[in-house]
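Ticket reopened. Same input as before:
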Amino acid sequence: MVEHDVTDSTDWLSTPLSALTPLESALRCQVCKDFYTTPMLTSCSHTFCSLCIRRALASDMKCPLCRANDQEMKLRSNWSMEEAVEAWKGARSRTLEMARSRGAPGSPKRKANEVELEEQTGSKRLRSSARLSGKATMPSYAPKPIGGDDIVQISDGEEEFEPEPDDGLVSCPSCRKRMKEWQVFTHLNTCTGPSPKPKTPPKPQLGAFGQPQQKAKDRLPAVNYSMLKDNALRKRLADLGLSTQGPRTILESRHREFLTLWNANCDAVYPKRKAQLISDLESWERAQRTGGANRGTMVKDKEFDGVAWAQKHGDSFKDLVAEALRNRAVAKSKSIPEDGGPAAEHEPRKPAEESLPFPSNPAAVVPITAGDGVAMLSRPANEQEDQAIHVAVRVTESSSDIPLAGRTYHAQNASHGEPRPRQDCDNVVPAQFDPGAHGTGFLRD
Amino acid sequence: MSAGMSGRRLMKELGKIHNDGLPPGIELVSSGESEADNSDWLLDIRVLDDNPLYKDQVYRLRFRFPKAYPIEPPEVTFENRPDRPIPMHPHVYSNGIICLDLLGSQGWSPVQSAQSVCMSIQSMLTSNNKNERPEGDEQFVKMNKSRPRDIQFLYDDNTV
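Engineering reply: fixed in the latest deploy. New output:
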């Protein structure tokens, strides 16, 4: 996914305002390098985006900056930082535009000096342009109370009736700002009239009955997954309205990520709706699966052309079918009920005969006992079917340079739809591998 | 937003490199196979002082960023090429795998970046004066089939 609006604090380095680089850097999260979204303070007084710090703490319970131990429960909102970030975000693009248009070649330092020099000599051009830009950027600023601390801005539309709050203040007859009585007169001299309806901050949207939308207030507690049986975990997912498809590791990471998203959302000033969170979770899951460093376990994406794939790799499938049948015959002759293994974790799914993506591919319906090298081909897993077939082809393609045990590993690995080989490896290895043959056991530095 | 957590973060690191450059002795060779997939970077590093072990040599590092980056560490290895040898170091195996705690899940912190990792490796080389490979290097290189992230290293040397 290519983002075109990638901004960074170093954007200022090439402009006369290079001194803004450290300022902007201070407004950015050290984890995502983006402006703080819902900044939270840790016990060690560092600030991160709510989502970033929750993900980091879920991963190793330490502050990313100073490695002090911390807990999600102890996070506190950093409202002032959020305010500063919002204000700066509003001002940034215009300021940068202006700084760039004034930018001249040369070292940033020299440029900075130039500006100082011009300011000292009172360059008229600089002042007027500064003032102009100040006006021009006004609308994009997050509206802030103007004046002293005791002036409260009311951001409601004119048409809405607002009962007079009993706060000892009066409102300006023109712009309806709330202030102390003695301030009104002086304020009126400078009052610019009714303030335009502010664009930001957005008010929490109202639901059908004028109720605030389902506000995500209650944080969800962390779960000790090792204490949770598969079905209990599935039930939890179902209760949250999440998919219960996939192997155990996926279920756990899905549940964990949703808790993170949910709890981070609880911190937000304007929380998203649950449906939005669920769609965030889905896109997170897609991103976790596809491409990247996990090429070994690529799964089907939306553009996947199943027919073309089936044609291209038809022969491989046939070979696999033959092999699978052989294995099955062998397994039967031994008559060992092999029901254990990783496949046993899976929920039973629809029968294979329904909606096969590759009607021409008999491999998908060959019943094989779990534990075979190509066992997953028998998994009638609707959307995951392609995945299993994909896996099988990978095995044949790579079989020349991977030992037999490795083939087993790869097949099971990918048929889990598991994007993170490491975890899968943990699950699979003890049952299937002789660790000595893979050099994982002896390595000690 | 969550769709491209690692992608977005990597774009930012690239933007910073583009704007600000890299520290001396570190050069970005390529940042991914395509614009859409920027999860595989190559960087060249040099040791800046006169350490005879590494003088006049350039080493190539390959970074593989997982989807959960920066929560999870990148996989960093030295690449062996005709003009890019694997540096001699008691924590660098001759197949390029680096035993460095900050690349493991225990030592990693999400505030690290490709640049900071390069600087750490640079300084790890700079401070070394042993012309040797790790113990059991030959056996490890011959037998190891797992990826660096799946190897259980035991970090016992605090002098690096």
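The longest strand of chain A covers residues 39-41. The CA atoms of residues 54 and 260 of chain A lie 6 Å apart. Please confirm and we'll close it.
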